[in-house]
Design goal:
alpha/beta, Aminopeptidase, Lysozyme, 2 domains, 6 strands, about 10% strand, MurNAc-LAA_cat
């Protein structure tokens, strides 16, 4: 007797459904089933795998294997398809309403929806052979729609399939009263670079870096908006977003499909875009809108708390993207098709973090023509707070900020002086080595001269004696 029979649908000569770019259902089914087996065995659950590899089994054979193993539950893994390419989401099938199968399906489906953000299409009922002829409660899960190009793309990502597998296992374990243990088979420490993180550099560092790279004044000033907005948009590391904006816009010079007038710092497209033409890109009213959309899209990708959001400027705020890309390195092939895209963003981040601040940069509350502090100002321009408290506080903060900037500048000069001193010491060492070598050469010449003189004196002495 085993706890669970896992059935990877299709296989061998039967590929199942095939996605727009040729991904076969049978491959996805087997991967998820094998990953589920690995997870469940580490949790102490006994598993019978119906299909161990890419071989063909008819439905009756699958049922027979599960019945012979005396499995307590049966779970069949499939990928869905539809005639329309917009169909999306996840659903489960059981034989009849009200039984253990329906309860198990609902538990697993809840976990999958929560983990992936896929649309919940509910538990449905069907007279499938694997549901009807099995001796145990049985569920057939349709993970998502391979006929939908976006969800097919997800299925090509092993991390997404791993997420689906873990959700299935957690749902099953919860149903049988055996909660998932995080400490079991703990994963190694991840060395990738999280998108959601406290700022990994100072705002003035990115401004100095941008100026060092001949960025436009507008692009330099956008740093203020990124730093003002990141905390209310998923706590995305603003250094990630700013570096990506530099890559996408050429440090604000643009020159690609769109220009500065689009106020679109990350090349975000419309929800229905099918090509890379200018009209396929969003044209924002203000830079604040464009940067808010940029941060929201990164936050959605990274699985930020509270996402997907109900109200956002992000035109492509699709729920299925939730948690798809948690690390900068994973932007490659996801945000952009280039396989080195994430690495290029990361390289810019490293450059920013190594930048020494040499100039004073004033923070612009009206960066690039978009006021980000208008919550404190009335329509007539007056302060909406009682008295002058806000003005006084702001004045004190400005003084503190100026002091900090002065210290940064001072330390920047100190670092420059240290660099010059190190160069001087290095040059001095070279000169000393050169003098030592020259002295050695002189010593050798002296010895030779002494030998010559001695020989001459010997010759003279001998002639005198004669």
């Amino acid at each position: 007797m085993v706890d669970l029979a896992l059935d990877a649908g299709h296989g061998g000569i039967d590929p199942g459904v095939v996605g727009p770019t040729g991904l076969m259902e049978k491959e996805c089914n087997l991967y998820i089933a094998k990953k589920c087996e690995e997870i469940l065995k580490n949790q102490g659950v006994t598993v019978k795998q119906i299909r161990e590899d890419d071989n063909f089994l008819n439905l009756s054979e699958r049922v027979q294997i599960a019945n012979d193993a005396k499995a307590k539950y049966f779970f069949s893994i499939h990928v869905n398809s539809a005639d329309v390419d917009t169909a999306h989401g996840t659903e489960a099938y059981v034989l009849a309403k009200g039984g253990e199968g329906e309860k198990l399906a609902r538990e697993v489906l809840d976990h999958v929806v929560e983990a992936t953000g896929l649309a919940d299409r509910g538990v449905k009922f069907a007279n499938f052979v694997v549901l009807r002829d099995t001796d145990m409660p049985a569920v057939l899960l349709e993970v998502c729609f391979i006929s939908n190009s976006a969800e097919e793309s997800l299925l090509r990502d092993d991390d997404f399939k791993d997420k689906i597998s873990l959700a299935i296992c957690k749902g099953f374990l919860n149903y049988i009263g055996k909660p998932y243990k995080n400490s079991v088979n703990a994963q190694p420490i991840n060395t990738l670079t999280p998108i959601i993180l406290k700022p990994s550099a100072l705002k003035d560092q990115v401004k100095q870096w941008a100026k060092n790279n001949n960025a436009t004044p507008t692009f330099i000033s956008l740093a203020d908006l990124y730093w003002d907005l990141y905390s209310s948009h998923g706590e995305v590391n603003p250094v990630v977003a700013y570096a990506q904006a530099a890559l996408e816009t050429g440090y604000g010079k643009f020159g690609g499909k769109i220009d500065e007038g689009y106020k679109n710092p990350c090349g975000l497209k419309t929800s229905t875009a099918r090509d890379d033409s200018p009209s396929a890109h969003i044209k924002f009213n203000t830079w604040e809108d464009g940067i808010s959309a940029h941060l929201d899209h990164l936050a959605l990708y990274a699985g930020a708390s509270g996402y997907p959001k109900g109200h956002t400027k992000d035109s492509r705020h699709f729920p299925y993207l939730l948690g798809k890309v948690k690390y900068v390195e994973e932007l490659s092939g996801n945000w952009a098709p280039a396989q080195d895209y994430g690495v290029r963003v990361l390289k810019l981040m490293f450059d920013i973090q190594e930048t020494i601040i040499k100039e004073n940069f004033e923070s612009s509350t009206n960066a690039a023509g978009s006021n980000v502090n208008n919550s404190l100002v009335g329509k007539d321009g007056s302060n909406t707070d009682d008295g002058n408290n806000v003005v006084d506080i702001k004045s004190n903060l400005d003084k503190i900020s100026n002091g900090i900037e002065s210290l940064k500048s001072h330390y920047g000069n100190v670092y420059s002086s240290i660099d010059e001193l190190e160069k001087f010491i290095s040059e001095k060492d070279i000169q000393i080595t050169k003098l030592i070598n020259e002295n050695s050469e002189l010593q050798s010449k002296i010895i030779i001269y002494e030998e010559v003189i001695e020989n001459i004196l010997n010759i003279i002495s001998q002639r005198i004696k004669k």
